[in-house]
Write a structure and sequence with these properties.
With 460 residues, the chain is an alpha+beta fold. It is built from nine helices and 18 strands. The two termini are 35 Å apart.
Length: 460
């Protein structure tokens, strides 16, 4: 770690196997010369125990010293006070690779618990969340957390939150969610640890885009499909006998601008990346995903504002939720005039719905995105079922009865506290899963049946 930090421009002070006196001296010598505006990176790898505070243990610590641990070990709270209260104006990254099993200290809590961050300018990271430990490699090599962290520190163009977000994701994936590093940031600062990203010339426009052509958005790392401009018939199709009045009359709509749409609903993993990057509040866990461990389930329990905030972050300028017309146009996938994306006959094996017996389901509520591997003509998955999806439009039951022409329509009149939802969800039957079926909900009411997908004007 010392070599990695030195290679990216930090002035490093390395110390190893210190007793309690040397630990205090070395930390004091590290903190004393710091000045306002400095960027500080403190990394500790060793043993620590939880006893009211998280205590870093010197090599001289003995088991019978627990009652006087404040004398014989170094408290995390004290370290943070020195960096953030006594030395105001710093940006500090503090990493404890110390969530190890300590068999000799069975009367202490397992794992480390983070203190409440009170001062801006700090990013605090542990190799495991509170109450959890991580085993070291048997061969004595650097553990996965530190190895991934070093690699991301050396990656050009990453800000502190991005470094730890990538590290967390890499460890989580490599261990199949058995190990998940924890980190929290409180206004640590908007700076690059290894210089800004390399500037690349803009790519020439692709004049040969095909409907449904895929690209990865490097902001949210989701796949987006290209939806060409065009016209379609929106609303209740003539052969559908189950339409509600708010789906009538069927009318011609012109979508004048092509756009990119996420091929799936936004996932738990992707929303967590957004929340960590922006300090946005995370939604509650669901019955299917009580510990937020199934990263490829659609994110639910998000309000309309939450969904809009994500889309703006993901799509930069122009990123947003789809309009109701854009959603239906995309859901039809270039196949106009059908009740369902594939045709007029409902098939419970092609959609996560109430009509597929829950006894036969692997998942109680939502299924992983693209679980059915049945994309429509625009390469979009799960346009009906699984979760219903937010759109931009204010709900108006008479929207289709208004005078046209309907060109890029966006309903702004009506009950402005509610927005239109489309696509139905896992708890609905076939009549509510028709492409033209409309739903609506208050904008502040996220639930376990509601998710979203985004559109962007361009994906480079």
């Amino acid at each position: 770690m010392g070599s990695a930090l030195k290679s990216i421009g930090f002035q490093t002070v390395n110390t190893f196997d210190v007793d309690e006196d040397a630990m205090r001296t070395q930390i004091k010598n590290f903190v004393t010369p710091l000045q306002k505006g400095d960027i500080v990176f403190f990394y500790y790898s060793g043993f620590a125990i939880q006893a009211e505070d998280s205590w870093l243990l010197p090599v001289s610590y003995q088991n019978n010293q627990l009652d006087e641990i404040g004398v014989h070990a170094y408290g995390l709270k004290r370290l943070l006070e020195q960096l953030l209260e006594e030395k105001q104006g710093l940006s500090a990254v503090v990493v404890l690779d110390a969530s190890r099993v300590c068999p000799a200290w069975a009367d202490t809590e397992v794992g480390l618990n983070a203190p409440t961050l009170r001062n801006a300018g700090i990013l605090l990271a542990f190799s495991a969340p509170g109450g959890h430990t991580v085993a070291d490699p048997r061969d004595g090599s650097v553990n996965l957390f530190t190895s991934e962290l070093i690699g991301n520190l050396k990656t050009r163009g990453l800000k502190p939150i991005e470094v730890f977000d990538r590290t967390q994701g890499a460890v989580r994936k490599a261990t199949e969610n058995r190990e998940i590093p924890w980190f929290e940031s409180l206004a640590v600062g908007d700076f690059y640890l290894t210089g800004p990203p390399a500037v690349t010339p803009p790519r020439a426009p692709d004049l040969k885009l095909r409907p449904g052509q895929l690209r990865t958005n490097h902001q949210d790392l989701l796949r987006y499909a290209w939806i060409p401009a065009g016209s379609f018939q929106m609303g209740c199709v003539p052969q559908d006998k189950k339409c509600a009045q708010d789906e009538r009359p069927q009318h011609s709509v012109n979508i004048t601008k092509s756009f990119w749409m996420t091929t799936t609903e936004v996932t738990v993993e992707t929303y967590e990346r957004f929340a960590n990057a922006t300090n946005h509040k995370k939604p509650q866990a669901t019955q299917t995903n009580t510990k937020e461990m199934l990263a490829n389930l659609p994110e639910t329990k998000v309000s309309w504002d939450d969904a809009e905030d994500f889309c703006k972050w993901a799509g930069a300028e122009g990123g947003r939720l789809p309009t109701e017309a854009e959603w239906e146009y995309a859901a039809r996938g270039g196949k106009d005039g059908t009740i369902y994306p594939w045709g007029d006959t409902f098939d419970p094996e092609r959609v996560n719905s109430f009509e597929k017996s829950r006894k036969k389901r692997k998942y109680h509520e939502t299924t992983p995105v693209s679980n059915y591997n049945d994309p429509n003509g625009f390469s979009l998955f799960d346009m009906i079922g699984n979760v219903r999806e937010w759109t931009l439009d204010v709900y108006d039951p008479d929207a289709y009865s208004r005078t046209g022409p309907f060109q890029d329509p966006l309903m702004k009149q009506g009950n402005k506290s509610e927005r239109v939802l489309r696509g139905g969800d896992f708890d609905e039957r076939r009549d509510d899963l028709r492409i033209s079926a409309r739903d609506h909900r208050p904008i502040d009411k996220g639930d376990n049946r509601t998710g979203f997908r985004c559109i962007a004007p361009d994906i480079l």
